[in-house]
Design a protein that fits this description.
The chain starts with a helix and ends with a helix. The protein has a 7-stranded mixed β-sheet, with helices on both faces. Strands 1-2-3-13 form a 4-stranded mixed β-sheet. The longest helix is centred in the last third of the chain and has 17 residues. Helix 3 runs antiparallel to helix 10 and helix 4 runs parallel beside helix 10. It has 13 helices and 15 strands. Bound molecules: pyridoxal-5'-phosphate (PLP). Pyridoxal-5'-phosphate binds next to helix 5.
């Protein structure tokens, strides 16, 4: 084992000039442990991944069982494998009828890439409508439909035919026309700093898409998997998307994501051209076994029912004169302050005190909290005491 800072800084490609830089030897439940034995409370779930905590025993057992049978045996879509069969059936049972067919991929951005291609293929149209401040991933297609201009500038030209509208603004929906293949939006915008749309707005989006024959893609890669109190956030809006994208917490700690649509829509990848979307590792059996076990844990431990009361407890305890606003859906929070510098100092202070929180990609004045849903009330109280101390120190 090595936790060499030198190797980390020189041999692993960096993504920022100032990485978080703590070493992790072990993770369990809501806790991360450094090699020196320092304990951290993970209040961000590895950015929305460890919703059922780290190394849940049911998930670890399912992974071990699958590893003992087989690992990768064939590219996606050719061999019948029990792990992907069971997962696909479970998802179809949990989702509305028109979301009965899933295509497994390896990451959130890939799920969105597949969804965009599917929408073009099904509608025969090319125009895509997306929302300002959205984040859909870092590959070319997903970046093209993401709303943060600063992150896109250096990589142009990107996809043509993409139009942007303001999130949660009904008059902007006029932009969606009979030329639009799809609208892609996060049901709750995550990296914009937790932006929660009105029920009326989401209904209007659905209606406008239906009127114009446009497919509605809801990206629930961050806000799905119980984070907001229902398995998927769209279930609180009384609407159903044509394509749903999921990832992050879906795999319980292993990399798997999916775009989900109807059987009829998915047929379009089999002809004109055949093999219209392919992947080597999508539906990897170990990842599928881990994802199925994750869904089972969410059910068996009644995690969804506890999300709202735990979220409220955080909100009640996090009272501080320098907090400007808290935006929350379930256990997904953005906590606003008056400057990005202050936010950075709080995140650093919290780290020293043993609590991990983090900033957002497109909203520098707040930090995020998205703890594992298994966090107990006592652990919430301890976390909030530490956070308030970090806010005081900053
Ligand atoms: C809403 C949303 N969509 C897509 C992605 C991209 O997922 P990935 O990093 O797995 O490619 C993210 C990642 O943060 C996300 O929050």
């Amino acid at each position: 084992m090595t936790f060499s800072k030198e190797i980390f800084l020189n041999n692993l490609a960096p993504t920022s000039p100032n990485p978080y830089l703590i070493s992790i030897e072990k993770a369990e439940g809501i806790y991360l442990y450094s090699p020196e034995g320092k304990r951290y409370i993970d209040l961000i779930s590895g950015i929305g991944v460890s919703n059922i905590g780290h190394r849940h025993p049911h998930v670890v057992a399912a992974i071990k069982e699958q590893v003992d049978r087989h690992l990768h045996v064939m590219v996606y879509g050719e061999f019948i494998q029990s792990a992907s069969n069971l997962l696909a059936k479970k998802l179809a049972d949990l989702l509305p009828e028109n979301l009965n067919c899933c295509y497994f991929v390896n990451s959130g951005t890939e799920a969105n890439e597949g969804a965009l291609k599917l929408a073009k293929r099904v509608t025969g149209r090319t125009e895509i409508v997306s929302c300002r401040k959205s984040y859909h991933g870092s590959t070319h297609g997903s970046l093209s439909v993401s709303g943060n201009e600063v992150k896109k500038m250096a990589f142009r030209p990107l996809l043509p035919d993409v139009k942007f509208i303001d999130f949660n603004v009904i008059p902007d929906l006029e932009t969606i026309t009979h030329h639009t293949a799809c609208v892609i939006m996060e049901t709750i915008q995550g990296d914009a700093g937790v932006r929660i749309p009105d029920k009326l707005y989401m209904k209007a989006v659905r209606q406008r898409c239906t009127e114009t024959g446009t497919l509605l893609i809801l990206d629930e890669i961050q806000c799905g998997m119980g984070r907001t109190g229902t398995l998927f956030a769209f279930q609180q809006y009384d609407i159903v998307p044509d394509i749903l994208t999921i990832g992050k917490a879906f795999g319980g700690g292993l990399p798997i994501a999916s775009f989900v649509s109807s059987y009829e829509n998915m047929q379009s990848f089999t002809h004109n051209p055949m093999l219209g979307h392919i992947t080597t590792f999508g539906g990897n059996p170990v990842c599928c076994a881990s994802a199925l076990a994750t869904l089972e844990v969410m059910e068996n431990e009644n995690l969804l029912e506890q999300v709202e009361s735990k979220g409220k407890l955080f909100e009640t305890l996090l009272k501080h004169p320098s907090i400007i606003e808290i935006r929350r859906s379930g256990l997904l929070f953005a906590i606003d302050f008056n400057s990005a510098d202050r936010v950075n100092r709080i995140v650093q202070n919290a780290k020293e005190l043993g609590v991990i929180c983090y900033s957002f990609l497109s909203h520098s004045n707040s930090f995020r909290i998205a703890p594992p849903l298994i966090i107990t009330d006592a652990e919430i109280k301890e976390s909030c005491e530490i956070l308030l101390q970090a806010i005081d120190n900053a």
